[in-house]
């Protein structure tokens, strides 16, 4: 009996600290998980706020917004990448494939380049533009006023970047810098071109771009997340550009997960 009690006391003596350590470890892990979730929610909230701001202001206002606090740009793109991770396919990868299927001598202007993934994955000369530059290869500017010369590039790309309320001025700038017969490639969130949910009529949007001085080459609505629109700049300038009727592109606002 004495031996049994002694062993029992010995087990309790050595077991309590171990059990306490195990409980403490679980509490710390639970606390850490909670803090991670709170940080993710806070980060997601900031992203949604910045995202809504970019969709509902002009490009010039967005440029000044990030000039006042450049850290907001990093916060936005962190949230953007998290959102993109849920997409089964990335539109930028399709545009990369398109460029690789064409001559590497084509000069490209990437309007709203983000992390400049396009430029990093093709052999072409790419001018990468965005509101903030955290990379030497990226030029910070308002996309309606780039430093490029007129008729100086072969391809203009807008990959999920027609965000400002003055988006027509971005497309006018693309028309200015494109050479005659140059290509305009647009990838946008599909819901923005769904009239049934408040989106723009894609036919009206294409007509506006045609009136700007382009010919529609291809419309690809096969992906459930985004649309791809391909245009070619006309050889002759359009003299009636001032009367273009642009449809409103509704903001792409992300819901809280």
UniProtKB/TrEMBL annotation:
Keywords: Chromatin regulator, Methyltransferase, Nucleus, Repressor, rRNA processing, S-adenosyl-L-methionine, Transcription, Transcription regulation, Transferase
Family (UniProt): Belongs to the methyltransferase superfamily. RRP8 family.
UniProt GO MF annotations: methyltransferase activity
Gene Ontology CC annotation, any one: nucleolus
Amino acid composition bias (Basic residues), ranges on this chain: 1-16
InterPro entries from the UniProt entry: RRP8, RRP8_N, SAM-dependent_MTases_sf
Enzyme class: transferase
Role played: Probable methyltransferase required to silence rDNA.
UniProt region (Disordered), positions on chain: 1-32
Subcellular location, record wording: Nucleus, Nucleolus
EC code(s) of this entry: 2.1.1.-
Pfam families associated with the record: Methyltransf_8
Protein name stated in the entry: Ribosomal RNA-processing protein 8
Organism: Salix dunnii
Biological processes per GO annotation: chromatin organization; methylation; rRNA processing
The UniProt record lists the keyword Nucleus: yes
């Amino acid at each position: 009996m004495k031996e049994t009690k002694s062993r029992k006391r010995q087990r309790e003596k050595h077991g309590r600290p171990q059990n306490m350590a195990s409980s403490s470890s679980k509490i710390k892990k639970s606390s850490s998980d909670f803090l991670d979730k709170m940080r993710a929610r806070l980060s997601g909230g900031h992203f949604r706020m910045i995202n809504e701001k970019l969709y509902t202001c002009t490009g010039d206002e967005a440029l000044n917004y990030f000039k006042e606090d450049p850290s907001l740009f990093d916060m936005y793109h962190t949230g953007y990448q998290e959102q993109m991770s849920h997409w089964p396919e990335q539109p930028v990868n399709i545009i990369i494939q398109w460029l690789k299927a064409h001559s590497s001598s084509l000069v490209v202007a990437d309007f709203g380049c983000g992390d400049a993934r396009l430029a990093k994955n093709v052999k072409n000369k790419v001018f990468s533009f965005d509101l903030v530059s955290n990379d030497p290869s990226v030029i910070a500017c308002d996309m309606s006023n780039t430093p490029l010369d007129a008729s100086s590039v072969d391809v203009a790309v807008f990959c999920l970047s027609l965000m400002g309320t003055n988006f027509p001025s971005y497309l006018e700038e693309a028309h200015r810098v494109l050479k005659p017969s140059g290509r305009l490639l647009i990838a946008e969130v599909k819901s923005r071109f769904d009239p049934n949910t408040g989106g723009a009529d894609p036919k009206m949007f294409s007509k506006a771009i045609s009136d700007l001085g382009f010919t529609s080459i291809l419309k690809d609505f096969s992906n459930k997340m985004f649309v791809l629109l391909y245009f070619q700049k006309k050889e002759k300038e359009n003299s009636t550009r001032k009367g273009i009727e642009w449809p409103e592109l509704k903001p792409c606002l992300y819901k809280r997960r």
